[in-house]
Amino acid sequence: MRKYEIEYGKIVETFSDSAPILLFSNPTADEQRFLIQKLNIDEHTLASALDPEELPRLEFEPDHAAIIFKRPKNYSGKDQLEFKVASMGLFVYEERLVIVISEDIPLFIGKRFLNVTGLHDIFLKLIYNSISHYVEHLRVINMISEEIEDKMSESLDNKYLLNLFSLEKSLVYYANAISSNGFVFEKLRNLSSRIGLEENSREMLDDIIVENAQCQRQAEINSNVLASLIGARANIVSNNLNVLIKHLNAVTIWLMMPTFVVSAFSMNVRIPMAEHPNAFWMIMGLAVISVWLIITYWKHRNW
C-alpha cells in the first residue's frame, strides 16, 4: 500500500493516515482484508480488480463507485511477443480514491499528471493513460509484424509464422478489452451525476470515449490486416519451399548425368577408348557436356 496526496497540482507520496489516494499493488491477504472490512469494498469486486480474465464493469455501492476496466499489461521478453491485458480497479469515494492493480508499476507519470485538480481528475487521467498505453502497444505490434514479414521473405523457419500468430492473438485480446472498456465508459458518462463529475470532467470523459473508439478501430484494422498477411505469408513460405525443392532436384539431375557417363565407362567389359591415352579427359569432357546440355534444355523450357 502506498499513500499519495495532491500538493500544488502534483501527486506526491505521503505517510499520512488521512491520505486521499491509496494505491494497492498486488495487495497481500492483510491488505485485502483492510479493503473489504475498513473500506467496505465488495470481496468479489476486489477479486475482479486483480483477475485479468474479469470483464470491465461499473458498480455503485452505498459509499463509493467501483470501476473495473482492462489495461495493457507491461510487456517483458519472456512473453515471447504475446501482449497481454490486466485489470485495474478504481474505487471512487467522496473524498478518497482507492486504486487496486495486480502489478507494481508507475502510474502517476507523464505530462497529464503535472497538473491535477482533484480525485475525479486523477481517475479519469489514469483511464486516459491506459488508452495511450494501448495505442503505443499497437504501434509496437505493427513495427514488429513488419520486421517479421521482411524476415519471412528470406527464411523458411516456422518461428516467424508462430510469432505472427502470437501478435494476432494479442490484437484480438486488445480489441476485445478496448471494446469492453468502451461500454463501461459510456455507462460512466450516462451516470456521471451519481459520481459527481463536473463539467470539465465530463468533457474529459467525452474525449476518453472518442479516443477509446479510435483505439478500438485501430486494433480491429491491425488484427484484420495481420490475419490476412498470415495466410499470404504462409503461402509464400510454401512457395519458397517448392522453389528450394526444385533447385535441389535440378542439382540432383545435373549430378546424375555425369555419374551415368562415368559409370558407363567404368564397367568391367571392353569399351571404346579403353586404350586411348586421353580417355580420362575425353570421358570427363562428355560428363561436362551432358550437364551443359541439361542446363540448356531447362533454360529453353523456362524450368
From TrEMBL:
A GO-annotated cellular component: membrane
Membrane-traversing stretches: 248-267, 279-298
Cross-referenced InterPro entries: CorA-like, CorA_cytoplasmic_dom, CorA_TM1_TM2, MgTranspt_CorA/ZnTranspt_ZntB
Domain of life: Bacteria
Record GO terms (molecular function): metal ion transmembrane transporter activity
Keywords: Membrane, Transmembrane, Transmembrane helix
The protein's name in its UniProt record: Putative divalent metal ion transporter
Membrane topology, record value: Multi-pass membrane protein
Origin species: Elusimicrobium minutum (strain Pei191)
UniProt record similarity statement: Belongs to the CorA metal ion transporter (MIT) (TC 1.A.35) family.
Keyword Transmembrane (UniProt): yes
Subcellular compartments: Membrane
